[in-house]
Design a protein that fits this description.
Layout (H helix, E strand, L loop, with lengths): L3 E2 L1 H30 L8 H26 L1 E2 L15 E6 L4 E7 L10 E3 L3 H6 L7 E6 L2 E11 L1
Parallel strand pairs: 1-2, 4-5
Antiparallel strand pairs: 3-4, 3-7, 6-7
Helix pairs in contact: 1-2
Length: 154
C-alpha cells in the first residue's frame, strides 16, 4: 500500500484511534470485568464475546498506531495543477457519454460511494499525469474501458 493520505483521511483515522482507545476499549473492558465477576468463565458467553471483541479492538488500535506513523500527509497542491496527481478530483467521460467524478486518495481512505479511489487502483494508475482531453484506457475485470479526462481540480 502506498504511504500517502489526505489531511481529511488522517483526521478520520486519528479520530477512529482516539474513539477506540478512549471510549470503546474502556467500555468493553468494563463489560468483560462484569461478566468475569459472574462466575464460571468457560460457559459465560458475555465474557467470551467480550474477550474476543477486546482482541479485535486491540488489533485495530495496533494497526492504526503503526499505520499513522508510516503515513505521509499530502496537504499541498502540486505545482502543475493541469495534470492528475494525488488528491485530484478528476472528471471522466466514457464512450457511451456517461460522466464520472473520482478523487485520488490513499489506500486507507478509498470509498467508492463518495467517488474516492485508491492511488494503488488500476484506474488511478492510468490517470496519473494525464491532462484534460487525454484518453485513458483502464484494464478492468470485465475487459478494458476507455475514458476521456474532462476536468481536473484540487
Amino acid at each position: 500500500m502506498s504511504p500517502y493520505i489526505t489531511p481529511e483521511g488522517q483526521r478520520h483515522l486519528t479520530e477512529e484511534l482516539s474513539y477506540l482507545w478512549k471510549i470503546k476499549r474502556p467500555q468493553v473492558t468494563q463489560a468483560v470485568s462484569e461478566a468475569a465477576a459472574m462466575g464460571d468463565r468457560s460457559e459465560n458467553a458475555e465474557y467470551i464475546y467480550g474477550k474476543k471483541q477486546l482482541r479485535q479492538i486491540d488489533s485495530r488500535i495496533r494497526f492504526l498506531s503503526k499505520r499513522l506513523d508510516a503515513l505521509t500527509v499530502v496537504d499541498r497542491t502540486p505545482e502543475d495543477t493541469s495534470k492528475v496527481f494525488f488528491g485530484a478530483w478528476v472528471g471522466l467521460e466514457d464512450v457511451d457519454g456517461n460522466s464520472y467524478q473520482y478523487r485520488i486518495v490513499g489506500p486507507d481512505e478509498f470509498d467508492t460511494d463518495k467517488g474516492f479511489i485508491s492511488i494503488d487502483s488500476p484506474m488511478a494508475k492510468a490517470l496519473l499525469r494525464k491532462t484534460e482531453g487525454d484518453e485513458v484506457v483502464v484494464s478492468r475485470p470485465n475487459g478494458t474501458s476507455a475514458f476521456v479526462v474532462t476536468s481536473i481540480h484540487y
